[in-house]
Design a protein that fits this description.
337 residues, seven-stranded mixed sheet, six-stranded parallel sheet, 10 helices, binds NADP nicotinamide-adenine-dinucleotide phosphate
């Protein structure tokens, strides 16, 4: 079968032939119709991820059809259209994953492939309103956004939400989930065009974080004063600008982050956090129950993932380069077969 294989750090993916996987006990083989990229794939390619183990088939996101079942798995699954949950072995504690937790697509072979062997319990029915490409855009990003916004920050209808870096794959799902919940959503981006596109998806407005006074501008357009404005802030950039989020936060707000694209968080003024009674929360991926809840929400509100572009599997390297340049708005998808 054809796969996109990362053989060496900082080298382009090689399109290779490897043997088709076989379903072990408890597993199925999924014939993948589509996969999608996450920033994680770029980090693995660049060697900027813990525990790199090469060669590896990259890719955490995939959707396809069950073509074989292993021992102990019902034949009824054959032919099922599924989307794969890439959070492997979360375990029983909803607050934190267990010691065997890992993310599909390193160290285990991932979804940039024609076939994958995966535990049957990680396969969920593809939402019926979604194409394979749209369903493949969901798993890692939508799960991460769902837990950050709902599980950790506990968003309620009517609250004011700020989503930073709206061009990001996770950030766009957070926007869509928050709008569907009935929140007032604002965004930041390094691109005015991306802010306009976020407004078309239901955001109330946004500011460009490349302007030095973006926080002041944001408080002006929202009418927020010195006490801040947002009940919930979702960030993945981290870095020096994170401290400004404590000014944007309303009294008692929840700031949840799940990434550190811009490096270490610096210069947070402690008194701003404790006098304002802020909650700063970290989040990673999500539990099996959260994956199921996210899919139910996507079906209920007929959410269509925002797809930036679709490349054939054979052009996975071009797709990774696009993500690395940060040009995308929404998910970059690979069409397989
Ligand atoms: N912990 C987890 O479970 C988990 C899961 C998924 C992702 N992550 C992490 O979260 C981050 C985003 O992942 P992704 O896959 O969504 O990546 P992505 O699609 O490549 O998005 C990255 C986005 O970061 C934004 N950004 C860059 N500099 C910024 C700044 N100074 N302020 C605000 N936003 C800024 C950009 O937004 P604009 O284009 O709008 O400027 C860009 O689109 C990565 O660090 C990733 O490793 C963690």
């Amino acid at each position: 079968m054809i796969v996109a294989l990362q053989t060496e750090t900082n080298q382009p993916i090689s399109i290779s032939q490897i043997p088709k996987p076989v379903a072990a006990a408890g597993q199925v083989v999924v014939g993948l119709k589509a996969a999608a990229l996450n920033h994680r794939d770029v980090f693995v390619q660049e060697g900027k991820y813990p525990g790199i183990n090469l060669p590896v088939v990259l890719g955490s996101d995939g959707a396809g059809v069950v073509v074989a079942v292993g021992e102990g798995v019902s034949d009824a699954l054959l032919g099922r259209e599924v989307v794969i949950n890439p959070a492997l072995n979360w375990g029983v504690n909803p607050a934190f994953y267990g010691k065997d937790f890992k993310i599909l697509g390193m160290p285990d072979n991932g979804t940039f492939a024609e076939f994958i062997a995966i535990d049957a319990k990680n396969c969920y029915a593809k939402p019926s309103h979604l194409s394979f490409e749209a369903a493949a855009a969901l798993p890692l990003a939508a799960l991460t956004g769902w837990r950050a916004l709902m599980g950790r920050a506990g968003l309620k209808a009517g609250e004011r939400v700020l989503v930073t870096g709206i061009g990001g794959g996770v950030a766009l799902f957070v926007l869509q989930f928050a709008v569907a919940t009935g929140a007032e959503v604002w965004v930041t981006s390094g691109s005015d065009d991306k802010i306009e596109r976020a407004v078309a998806l239901g955001a109330k407005g946004g500011v460009n974080y490349r302007q030095a006074d973006w926080l002041k501008k944001l408080m002006e357009v929202t009418g927020g004063g010195r006490a801040g404005y947002f009940d919930v802030i979702i960030d993945s950039a981290g870095g020096p600008s994170f401290a400004k989020l404590t000014d944007a936060a309303a009294l008692g707000a929840r700031i949840c982050f799940f990434g550190g694209t811009n490096g270490n968080i610096t210069d947070i003024v402690p008194s701003k956090v404790f006098f304002k009674q802020l909650n700063i929360l970290g989040s990673t991926m999500g539990s099996d129950a959260e994956f199921a809840d996210m899919l139910t929400f996507v079906e209920k509100y007929q959410i269509q993932p925002v797809i930036d572009s679709i490349f054939p599997l054979e052009q996975a390297q071009t797709a990774l380069a696009r993500m690395n340049e940060g040009l995308q708005f929404g998910k970059i998808v690979l069409k397989i077969g």
